[in-house]
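ARCHIVE CARD
Drawer: 12
Card no.: 0347
Subject: one protein chain, sequence and derived structure
Cross-reference: see card 0346
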Amino acid sequence: MISIEDAIQLVKLSVKPILKKTTKQVEKAGGYFLYEDQYAPINMPPFRQSAMDGYALNLHDDLTYRLIGEVKAGDEHQPVLKKGEAVRIFTGAAIPDTADAVMMQEKVKTDGNTLEIEHHIDKEHNIRPLGEQVKTGDLALKKGTKLTPAAIGYLSSLGIKDVSVFKKPSIALVTTGNELIEAGQDLPFGKIYESNSKMLLAALYSLKFYDVSIHKVADDYEKTVTKLNTVINNHDLVLITGGISVGDYDFVGKALNQLNVKEVFYKVKQKPGKPLFFGKKEDTSIFALPGNPAAALTCFYVYVFIALQNMMNRDASELPRIQAKSVSDFNKKGDRPQFLKAVYNDGKVEILEGQSSAMQHTFAVSNALVFASEEVTKINRNDTVETILLPV
């Protein structure tokens, strides 16, 4: 049994980046990272553009102008303005080549085809220059940039349809147990509804990992070996829930051994989640998580999250840890470090009741985990505690 710190370090050292390229449509590339520098195929804006609703002017020495037309956003025509002439113009519209500046409509008085501006303005006032954001051929976004919604919008505005991005891991979720049935069925005595795959799938989706398949296997040794062999050979990451302990019907550990999965560690001095397995087979990473839901999700956030970030070649691979003031008292039993389900808000954290590894109702309202180290025996109200913020 190893320490939490050693287990985290082993995950960081063992999981390598997936440096493969894939192509995605821009609108489906959210959460991916650019595989290569992206250069602008056009100027942005692609023409001199009005920054507001107002009047485009061919400047002269007087404050009075003659109105000769109108240009809306999307209009392709280019009115020719002489000195002292103006056109009504709207935000985003193309500025006529013969216009020098735009006066906002609030500072203009109109009388038929005559308008009077409040004061003189400088050339290019309220005009977005051609290529103000980026010019044709210039670097638009660097390799490794995360494609946020804003980045997606920016690339789309440049007319870019497809982008090369780093491939995300393909992930298999494997649930084990004869007692598990699907929601929607009648619940016979002795059975429980399966929830771990839905829980972990939701956690992965929230982190924008969508290449996920779900597999179920009964408590049968040969079936377990066959299923694990298939998913390990076809995925970058395999997450197994249940069957990793030492009961008569816990076959996961034996199956992994038969499949020559290299054990990196098994069992961590922590609560919940002591019977956690992490191993490797070639480039595939395998986590066998405890079957109890709260333990499985805790291990996901503390260890699997790191593996996912490493696969994406991210430097900040752990969830953020901050210091917060406890608003609760808590007595810790035993000498194992504990991850305690909690609610964090504005510098304060409440440790919740119901810390059992089988209890999901507490985790359902948590947005943080309070870490109580081996040395801690009691947390008092107003103590400063280490708090892990969850991506919820």
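Annotation on reverse: The chain has four domains: 4-19+168-311, 22-40+143-166, 49-128, 321-389. The mean pLDDT is 93.
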